[in-house]
Specification:
It is a single chain. The protein is built from 28 helices and 22 strands. By secondary structure, the protein is α/β, with parallel strands linked by helices. The strands form 5 sheets. It has an 8-stranded mixed β-sheet with strand order 9-10-8-11-16-7-17-21, sandwiched between helices. Strands 2-1-4-5-6 form a 5-stranded mixed β-sheet, with helices on both faces. A 4-stranded antiparallel β-sheet has the order 12-15-14-13. The longest helix is centred in the middle third of the chain and has 35 residues, at 411-445.
Length: 816
């Protein structure tokens, strides 16, 4: 590439700075003009004769990072190419010059800005006015000025990029406020938006109600808005695994599960969706584990069922949709895959996206921690080992039957390996796992508190805990060794038999075997991360806990201590527009807590908007909030407390003529109350109990019945990862406070509070009216007088400044 790409003044500047550094490497940020001529440059870092830092955040979209090679050889090194790829993802170019600045090699050109059609924020807000198309589609429409304001702010974010935090109280109608700009943007620019939620309830509302209404309202002859719901792989049945399970049913399942398998096969034949939500009853874990879709077992185009595959049908719909609705778990899975593969432009778990809406955004941190950390549970290990063999059935017995009678050069040693090595390793793994989790369970006995599940936080001092010489040290070594033998042996057999018989049916069985081997490796890595983390590794929060009464499950977890820089670098700095919304984002009108937890306050900040849209409801006049004062304390008198709850539920049901949603904080309390009231209420009103049917089906019946009584617990995402450890946010928060105290930093700024305390008005049961408009808005289209809320006068940061059309380069410092 010719040095003529550099303006003469820039060449002189580069020569002078390199000479001042005595010929060592120097990093510059350069600015090209519209014709690609580099007309400005500034020094950002100086290094050695061999390397210089490529610091995060020093260049923004449209700029170019340039450094010199003192050797005069402009061939990019491996480190150069790695940094160049990361820069390109942020819209930044990369170039190399020699010390004399007589030659210039541009490794990556600055990506040219794509032509986009800007949205008129007022026009977007007008779509939600009483005379707009949405009102006409609905028939009956209530004007919500705060909803139009929110839509206008989001339209500005689509135009200019950046991150916006918009709290929307109950009744604002936030889903329409973010879906309308997303659909209009897709119509004008052909670019999708991913909408991520935390709960199934909201996903159902978006896909089943809101988006169909908006598609009718905003559709035209030239464009019909499209949308899709995308779920995690394990939510779908795999037709290939189902077929294989039916063929090998005698070696995989006991008699009671065979009937269930045939019922699922009949359902899969007529289902158009193939997901758990379409099932009338929850399948057993054992059967669903054998037939659920798994990304690492999928043979993609080679599969004979590919054309009808439920997973890829959903992915194809998502690839063509204007709006793709997912949950935070799937979004975090996508993020984890992109981080490992360094893939920021192509499809991963999700199709590529540059516009993201995070609804129920206050849950994102905890969900991301689950997917970026590791969890291992006793029941999870038992289930995984049961996939290999349980009561004479499983993959190993199936493999033995396949190899039986074959006496060729590859099958004979493979059969011997199964019978002699893998069977022994499996037995050893079971013995060691039993010892490990029994010892950990005993260690937890001393942590029990009245009425609470025992939890032990595993700090650095755990290395000297008495449980290690009691046998944990040896048992863990034995378990890891057995896992290694199983994984290596399974991989060896799979490799041999692939060479011997590459048929599709054999490939599916071997894929299952390789899948178990990979999971064994993941479990081993999780055990090491939780119990024996290597010194000098990234800071993590580790804990041990026991849950359950009838079936006790001991689980271990290790999650990153501070997700803020990870989320900033890997999500918020890489997505052009991010909208965070929820009914509870701010604490007392201040967004600082969530900003810090998600890394939104780290420089350079891309945060453009902080807005609070108060609820239009008059809670004091429109609702009744009652606190019983005559209930026994559940810790002191659980039976008395349960009886009081059941009595109140019955009394309220008669007073309201049904139509109740009763929310519990534990599954045990829910089941006890359900048993107590079933006889008295079930005959008069439909009684729906969480756990007695698919969640989606229960909600649908609840809505359709009108007078039904639904007993449930906190809404959770579909098919959370097996072995998920609850309350991880509390463990991480406690560890953060301790870590900050040890570093001499006061924890006051980031002190986590119970959610009820984070909103003072929640303690009284009503939302107090905001005394004045609160928030700060980014620039954009003008708005009618009285609707534009002022910048925070007490926020020293004000509105975040930065490149209006781009974003800073985030991430770790690279070494060139």
């Amino acid at each position: 590439m010719s040095v003529e790409r550099l303006a003469p003044a820039v060449r002189d500047l580069l020569r002078a700075e390199i000479a001042a550094a005595h010929g060592r490497e120097v990093s510059f940020v350069a600015c090209p003009d519209a014709n690609g001529l580099i007309v400005e440059a500034r020094v950002v870092a100086r290094g050695t004769v061999d390397a210089v830092l490529a610091l995060p955040g020093i260049a923004v979209r449209g700029e170019l990072l340039l450094h010199n090679h003192p050797s005069g050889v402009l061939e990019p090194s491996g480190a150069d190419l790695s940094v160049a790829a990361r820069l390109h993802d942020g819209g930044v170019g990369f170039a190399i010059v020699d010390n004399a600045v007589s030659d210039c090699y541009v490794v990556v050109e600055c990506p040219r800005p794509r032509a986009t059609t800007r949205l008129d924020a007022i026009d977007v807000a007008g779509l939600l006015s009483p005379s707009g198309p949405v009102a006409r589609a609905l028939g009956s429409f209530e004007d919500r000025p705060s909803q139009r304001d929110m839509a206008a702010y989001i339209a500005d974010l689509y135009n200019d990029g950046g991150v916006g935090m918009l709290e929307a109280g109950t009744g604002v109608g936030k889903s329409f406020a973010y879906l309308v700009p997303a659909l209009v943007w897709a119509r004008e620019n052909g670019e999708r938006t991913v909408v991520s939620t935390n709960t199934i309830n909201l996903q159902e509302q978006l896909v089943g109600k809101d988006l169909p209404i908006l598609a009718r309202a905003l559709g035209s002859g030239e464009h019909t808005p499209t949308f899709a719901l995308l779920k995690g792989w394990r939510n779908y049945v795999c037709l290939s695994r189902l077929e294989q399970a039916r063929e090998q049913v005698t070696s995989l399942f006991e008699d009671e599960r065979r009937v269930e398998l045939e019922t699922l096969a009949a359902w899969a034949a007529r289902s158009s969706d193939g997901s758990l939500a379409d099932l009338p009853d929850e399948p057993s874990g054992e059967v669903w584990d054998a037939i659920a879709a798994e990304s690492d077992l999928c043979t993609r185009l080679k599969c004979p069922h590919f054309d009808r595959c439920f997973v890829f049908q959903a992915r194809r719909r998502a690839a063509e949709a204007d709006v793709v609705v997912v949950n935070h778990h799937l979004l975090a899975s996508d993020l984890a895959v992109r981080m490992v593969s360094d893939n920021w432009q192509e499809a991963a778990v999700l199709p590529p996206y540059r516009r993201l809406v995070l609804d129920e955004a206050h849950h994102l941190e905890d969900v991301a921690a689950m997917h970026l950390g590791a969890q291992v549970s006793r029941l999870g290990v038992e289930r995984l080992l049961g996939r290999l063999e349980k009561n004479g059935r499983g993959l190993l017995p199936t493999l033995r039957s396949v190899l039986f009678g074959r006496d060729d050069i590859l099958s004979r040693p493979s059969r011997d390996l199964v019978q002699q090595s893998l069977v022994d390793a499996l037995a050893a793994a079971r013995r060691a796992a039993e010892t490990v989790f029994t010892l950990l369970g005993r260690r937890l006995d001393g942590e029990s508190g009245a009425g609470t599940a025992p939890v032990l936080r595993l700090g650095d001092e755990f290395r000297d805990d008495a449980v290690w010489p009691q046998g944990l040290d040896v048992a863990l070594d034995n378990l890891l060794l057995a896992f290694s033998r199983l994984s290596d042996g399974a991989g060896t057999i799979a490799d041999r038999l692939t060479l011997d018989d590459p048929s599709e049916r054999r490939a599916q069985l071997l894929g299952e075997l390789r899948g178990v081997a990979r999971r064994l490796q993941q479990v081993a890595a999780g055990l090491i991360a939780a119990l024996r983390p290597p010194p000098g590794g990234p800071a993590a929060v580790r804990w041990l806990e026991r849950r359950g009464r009838k079936v006790v499950n001991v689980s271990l977890a290790a999650v990153p201590l501070d997700l803020a820089p990870i989320l900033k670098d890997s999500l918020f700095d890489r997505v052009e527009t991010v909208v965070l919304t929820s009914a509870t984002l701010a604490a007392g009108g201040d967004f600082g807590y969530l900003e810090a937890r998600l890394g939104l306050d780290l420089p350079p900040s891309r945060l453009k908007v902080r807005e609070i849209h108060a609820s239009p409801f008059d809670f004091a006049a429109q609702c009744l909030f009652g606190i019983p004062t005559d209930f026994p304390e559940p810790r002191d008198d659980q039976a008395g407390h349960d009886a009081a709850v059941a009595r109140v539920v019955v009394e309220l049901a008669h007073a309201a003529d049904g139509g109740m949603f009763v929310l519990f904080t534990s599954h045990g309390a829910l089941r006890r109350t359900a048993d107590a009231v079933r006889g008295e209420l079930g005959g008069r009103w439909p009684l729906l109990v969480q756990g007695e049917g698919q969640r989606d089906q229960l909600l649908r019946r609840f809505r359709e019945a009108g007078s039904a009584i639904l007993l449930g617990t906190d809404s959770r995402p579909a098919r959370a990862r097996p072995g998920e450890a609850p309350f991880q946010g509390a463990h991480r928060a406690a560890h953060r406070r301790q870590a900050r105290a040890h570093r001499g930093r006061g924890p006051e700024r980031l002190r986590p509070l119970p959610r009820a305390q984070r909103r003072p008005e929640a303690q009284a049961g009503v939302r107090a009216p905001d005394p004045q408009p609160v928030g700060s808005g980014g620039g954009g289209a003008a708005r009618p007088a009285g609707r534009h809320q002022a910048l925070w006068s007490d926020d020293p940061r004000g509105t975040a400044q930065g490149d209006p059309g781009g974003r800073g380069l985030g991430g770790r410092a690279g070494r060139l």
